[in-house]
Write a structure and sequence with these properties.
Blueprint lengths: L22 E2 L14 E12 L2 E10 L4 E8 L5 E3 L6 E2 L11 E9 L2 E9 L3 E8 L5 E6 L5 E6 L8 E7 L10 E6 L6 E7 L9 E4 L4 E3 L2 E12 L2 E11 L7 E4 L10 H4 L7 E9 L4 E8 L3 E8 H10 L1
Parallel strand pairs: 6-10
Antiparallel strand pairs: 1-22, 2-3, 3-4, 4-5, 7-8, 8-9, 9-10, 11-12, 12-13, 13-14, 15-17, 16-17, 17-18, 18-19, 20-21, 21-22
The chain binds beta-D-mannopyranose.
The site of beta-D-mannopyranose has 9 residues, from strand 7.
C-alpha cells in the first residue's frame, strides 16, 4: 500500500454544532460560477497533489453552454488559478479530435504520470482517457469504451496485473437508470473482463449510482465515494455515500453505507443551473492525520469542498 502524505491538505475542523461524518467548508463555494471570463459555471472537477502544491482539471461550461475541461493550479487547494481556455489535447489519430463535449473529469497518478478520464462526447457520452506528466502537455489516449457510458474512474494502481476502471453504462440522455461496473485493461486502451460492482438501492440511491473520486486504498479495502440519485416529483436529487471494495477483487463489495453522507441542503447546492445536485469528483487524503478533503460540484454551477476523517468514514460504512 502506498502511503499518502499530504501535510498541506485543505482542512477545517468539524463545526461544534455538526455531528455528521462529512461536513462542509465554511467558505463554500470555493470557485464561483463566473470565476473566469469564459465560464457560465465551474463544477464537478478533479484535484491532485502536484509538486508540493495542487493541480486540477475543472469542468467549465462556457457562455455558449459548451462543456469542456480546463487546467488549474493552487498553492493550498482552496484558492485556484484557472486557464480561461480549455485544455488542448495532442493525439495521433485525427478521429480523436471529433468530440462534441468533455465533462466530469477525474485525475489520478498511476506509476509515472497523471491520467485524466472524463465523459467524452463521441456520438454520445463515453469515457475519454488522456494523460499528462506536468500539466503542460496533455495527450489523449483513446475512448475507453463504446457509447453510452459515464463516470469512468481509474484505480490508482494496477490490480492483479491489470488497470481497472469503474464505469457506468448509460443512455444518450438524462439516464433514468444506472449501476456501477468495472472494466480491466493491460494497457489502458483495450478494455474487457467487465464485472458488475453494485446496483441501485432504496431512497437516496434508488434511480442510479456512479463512482465519484478515485478510490482510496486502505487496509480494509478500497474506499469508494459514489453519487446516488433519487427521482422526486421535482426531478433528480444527487447525493453521495460510500462503500468498501475488496482490494484484490474490487467488484466484490465488503460493506456499503446505508444513509447518504452528504445531500443537497445548502443554497449553493439547491439553487443553480441544475437544482439539488452534489457531485463529488476528487478526494485528497493525508494518511498520518486521517484527513480527507472532498471536492464536489454544487447544483451544476459551483465548486465546493467538504471534509471527513478516514476512521469515521470507515466506521460509518462498516456499521451500515
Ligand atoms: C449527470 C452529469 C453530471 C451532472 C448531473 C446532474 O448526468 O451530467 O455532470 O452533475 O447529471 O445534472
Amino acid at each position: 500500500m502506498q502511503t499518502s502524505f499530504l501535510p498541506n491538505i485543505p482542512w477545517e475542523e468539524r463545526p461544534a454544532e455538526c455531528s455528521d461524518v462529512v461536513w462542509r467548508y465554511s467558505k463554500n463555494p470555493i470557485i464561483p460560477r463566473d470565476f473566469i471570463p469564459s465560464s457560465n459555471s465551474i463544477f464537478n472537477s478533479a484535484v491532485v497533489p502536484f509538486n508540493g502544491r495542487y493541480a486540477g482539471v475543472f469542468r467549465c461550461d462556457n457562455k455558449k453552454r459548451e462543456m469542456n475541461i480546463h487546467r488549474g493550479f493552487s498553492e493550498d487547494g482552496i484558492r485556484w488559478v484557472l486557464d480561461n481556455d480549455p485544455i488542448k489535447w495532442q493525439y495521433d489519430d485525427p478521429e480523436l479530435g471529433c468530440f462534441q463535449y468533455r465533462y466530469d473529469p477525474r485525475v489520478v497518478w498511476i506509476e509515472d504520470r497523471y491520467y485524466i478520464t472524463w465523459c467524452n462526447g463521441y456520438h454520445g457520452p463515453t469515457i475519454g482517457i488522456g494523460y499528462s506528466y506536468n500539466f503542460e502537455q496533455f495527450y489523449f489516449l483513446e475512448n475507453a469504451l463504446l457509447p453510452f457510458n459515464r463516470n469512468g474512474v481509474l484505480f490508482p494502481r494496477k490490480i492483479r496485473g491489470a488497470y481497472v476502471m469503474l464505469n457506468r453504462p448509460s443512455d444518450n440522455g438524462h439516464t433514468p437508470f444506472g449501476d456501477i461496473f468495472l472494466s480491466q485493461s493491460p494497457d489502458l486502451i483495450h478494455w474487457g473482463r467487465h464485472r458488475f460492482v453494485m446496483g441501485v438501492k432504496n431512497g437516496w440511491e434508488s434511480t442510479k449510482i456512479g463512482a465519484g473520486p478515485i478510490p482510496i486504498e486502505t487496509p480494509d479495502g478500497w474506499l469508494l465515494f459514489y453519487h446516488g440519485v433519487l427521482t422526486s416529483c421535482n426531478g433528480f436529487v444527487y447525493s453521495f455515500g460510500a462503500a468498501l471494495l475488496d482490494l484484490e477483487h474490487p467488484w466484490k463489495i465488503i460493506a456499503r453505507g446505508g444513509p447518504y453522507l452528504l445531500s443537497p441542503q445548502r443554497e449553493y447546492e439547491c439553487v443553480g443551473d441544475v437544482p439539488n445536485v452534489i457531485f463529488p469528483c476528487a478526494a485528497l487524503f493525508d494518511q498520518p492525520s486521517g484527513r480527507i478533503a472532498l471536492y464536489y460540484g454544487g447544483a451544476d454551477t459551483v465548486t465546493c469542498l467538504a471534509f471527513c476523517r478516514m476512521d469515521e468514514v470507515l466506521a460509518f460504512v462498516k456499521k451500515s
